[in-house]
């Protein structure tokens, strides 16, 4: 199914591995251009956090599930990526994301497959990446004190491998995505580049 809508929507698709900076860039773009924002990882995290049958959880997902306080833990990230490898889970979450992407007024979505599967027609596609060590360091700083760095690095590597290796919607850049490597780029520089890309595309539209 394509995400093409009738009212000339404007979609920014942001994909990339864990803790690459997608969320920061997505929030900045949404605020600057008045676009709605969806962190699609939260959908998969909520499916994992609900527990039980992931397909049933994905089909029954509601707003209260996305407001849970336990979605940001390492365990929730692992549960999310296990459920995310199940095609029926992805299918259950796809229509909501596509409608969100093509809403009037425009939207920014960040995830793993937004530019490749959910909205291949997105007007702007960004793929945000960084080395596993840099990403694990960022994630480690956000976690409660006492979490060993090696645990966080192992978690990042394990999730990368599962997200890139799955058959359905594996993590990879769309052919026409702009790749931003934030390993050596300060996050505000990455945000500035992303703002410029969107501004140029809006101006050209
Ligand atoms: O915040 P972080 O980058 O660590 O991860 P997330 O975006 O919250 O995503 C958690 C997990 O959900 C990922 O490791 C993926 O397995 C899965 N996911 C996905 O498969 N497709 C998406 N569009 C978003 C997340």
Mean pLDDT comes to 94
**Would you list the SSEs in sequence order as H and E?**
EHEHHHHHEHEHHEH
CATH class: Alpha Beta
What count of domains describes the coordinates? 1
- What is the percentage of strand-forming residues? 5-15%
Strand order of the largest sheet: 2-3-1-4-5
Largest sheet: 5 strands, parallel
State the fourth-level CATH superfamily.
P-loop containing nucleotide triphosphate hydrolases
What ions, cofactors and ligands are bound? cytidine-5'-diphosphate
Characterization of this structure:
With 205 residues, the protein is of the alpha/beta class. The chain has one domain (11-204): Rossmann fold, CATH 3.40.50. Helices cover 53% and strands 12% of the residues. It contains ten helices and five strands. It has helices spanning 22-33, 41-50, 54-59, 63-66, 74-83, 87-101, 114-118, 132-142, 149-165, 187-204, and strands spanning 11-15, 36-39, 107-111, 124-129, 178-181. It has a five-stranded parallel sheet with strand order 2-3-1-4-5, with helices on both faces. α5 runs parallel beside α9. The longest helix has 18 residues, at 187-204. Cytidine-5'-diphosphate is lined by residues 18-19, 40-41, 44-45, 77, 80-81, 84, 111-113, 159, 163.
Which properties best describe this structure?
single chain; 205 residues; alpha/beta; Rossmann fold; 53% helix; binds cytidine-5'-diphosphate
């Amino acid at each position: 199914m394509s995400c093409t809508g009738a009212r000339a929507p404007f979609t920014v698709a942001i994909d990339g591995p864990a803790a690459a900076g997608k969320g920061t860039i997505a929030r900045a773009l949404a605020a600057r251009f008045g676009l709605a924002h969806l962190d699609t990882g939260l959908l998969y995290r909520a499916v994992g956090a609900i527990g039980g049958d992931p397909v049933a959880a994905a089909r029954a997902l509601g707003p209260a599930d996305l407001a849970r306080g336990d979605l940001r833990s390492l365990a929730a990230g692992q549960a999310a990526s296990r459920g995310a490898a199940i095609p029926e889970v992805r299918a259950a979450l796809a229509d909501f994301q596509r409608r969100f992407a093509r809403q009037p007024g425009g939207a920014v979505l960040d995830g793993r497959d937004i530019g490749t599967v959910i909205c291949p027609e997105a007007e702007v596609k960004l793929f945000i990446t960084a080395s596993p060590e840099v990403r694990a360091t960022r994630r480690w700083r956000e976690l409660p004190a006492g979490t060993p760095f090696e645990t966080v690095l192992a978690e990042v590597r394990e999730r990368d491998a599962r997200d890139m290796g799955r058959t359905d919607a594996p993590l990879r850049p769309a052919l026409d995505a702009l790749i931003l490597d934030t390993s050596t780029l300060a996050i505000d520089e990455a945000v500035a580049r992303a703002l410029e890309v969107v501004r140029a595309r809006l101006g050209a539209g």
